[in-house]
Amino acid sequence: xxxxxxxxxxxxxxxxxxxxxxxxxxxxxxxxxxxxxxxxxxxxxxxxxxxxxxxxxxxxxxxxxxxxxxxxxxxxxxxxxxxxxxxxxxxxxxxxxxxxxxxxxxxxxxxxxxxxxxxxxxxxxxxxxxxxxxxxxxxxxxxxxxxxxxxxxxxxxxxxxxxxxxxxxxxxxxxxxxxxxxxxxxxxxxxxxxxxx
Amino acid sequence: xxxxxxxxxxxxxxxxxxxxxxxxxxxxxxxxxxxxxxxxxxxxxxxxxxxxxxxxxxxxxxxxxxxxxxxxxxxxxxxxxxxxxxxxxxxxxxxxxxxxxxxxxxxxxxxxxxxxxxxxxxxxxxxxxxxxxxxxxxxxxxxxxxxxxxxxxxxxxxxxxxxxxxxxxxxxxxxxxxxxxxxxxxxxxxxxxxxxxxxxxxxxxxxxxxxxxxxxxxxxxxxxxxxxxxxxxxxxxxxxxxxxxxxxxxxxxxxxxxxxxxxxxxxxxxxxxxxxxxxxxxxxxxxxxxxxxxxxxxxxxxxxxxxxxxxxxxxxxxxxxxxxxxxx
Lengths: 197, 328
Fold this sequence. Notes:
The structure holds two protein chains of two kinds.
Chain A: H1 2-57, H2 65-87, H3 97-118, H4 122-126, H5 128-163, H6 167-170, H7 187-190
Helix pairs in contact in A: 1-2, 1-5, 2-3
Chain B: H1 5-41, H2 52-74, H3 77-83, E1 87-88, H4 96-112, E2 119-122, E3 129-132, E4 140-144, H5 145-150, H6 153-169, H7 171-207, H8 215-257, H9 260-272, H10 307-315
Helix pairs in contact in B: 1-2, 1-8, 2-7, 4-6, 6-8, 6-9, 7-8, 9-10
């Protein structure tokens, strides 16, 4: 009799403990998702700005078709990488943030060489429209960088909690996997797009 | 990163507490001294069982400071900005410089996890900026047109991040509290002066009657000396606290932007800029709020530390003026 009561009490405690871990995991996952949505908004904004930029410089940079096409191509790859991430359930699903980070790195490289070339066109440099687009792009760039810090901090807390004992026993049962950090890998791309002439 | 900002913040915070405690203790000690002095010098005319004079000193300081602080509380950040003649930036502005400023404010708000405050521009050629408002919810940031014209994007970001540092650390609240306390001490001087002025007239007429050494005059003199002493001391402490908060805000600017060059190059430009050696006339009353003030009589009363020292604190190395190179 006492044995049964003891067993039931033990099971109840075990259950409460599991519920606690479950809730904490959900809470942390939502924080990661929220931090990701901050980056996502800015990424979308940048992808919207780039075609405008290309459109407004076409007249000036007729000879640099290759560079412009490279920018557009890198941008389209980044857009589809972002869509993949969204389709696969965001940073906490099975999505590969790494793939998006790779596409972002390529895009940054293309933008850097684009702006380096634009230096050669004084008329372009003087254009009000161009200046405005540049300002918006560098601000978006900074916002991505700042929200990336916040996102990476959240991911670290989430991943650490999953990997620590005792949550490590249950995390994957409850469907939680470590999320990827959003890291821009190459040194060259680490610098924000240089847009001040 | 040239600066360990967590360490810098911890040190500055604990020092500020020390100053605030000193301030409170000072009031209490002087109130007790006043009580004893009056018992000593006024003699038999002052014969009460309650320490009336000490309480009066405490009450005058406390109520004036309280009233002054309540007035500051009613005054939101935006109304401070408007009162110095700054204009609010429209969020839909097409002006490139204003657009850039708004973008930078949004960036730093994101980096510091603070709400985006209203932004004001003050029409003046000096490089300067201030944050006003007692809480982070009613804070407002004001930037001069000099800033917009002379600083590059990174430097402007550093200056804006410095102001966000003040909001983040609640510096406006602290400096307003200290200003209110100093005002309280000043009011003791004012009352004592008025009593002296008033009783002098009476006293002269009484001279003919040979009635000298009016106990009211003696009491007023004691209050005057006590008020002057605490006011002087309070002003020094207020300035010292303010300087400490500037270092803290510089540390925050580095923390938020992860870029120590932005704020330190902006400070270099301020140091070089001839105009910036004078405060904008429009805001002299709020000198403690500005990013830099050169209105102080000397280093002891200055609300801001010397720029060279601030740059040294940010960059972590000694700093030789001849080598100042200002990036475009």
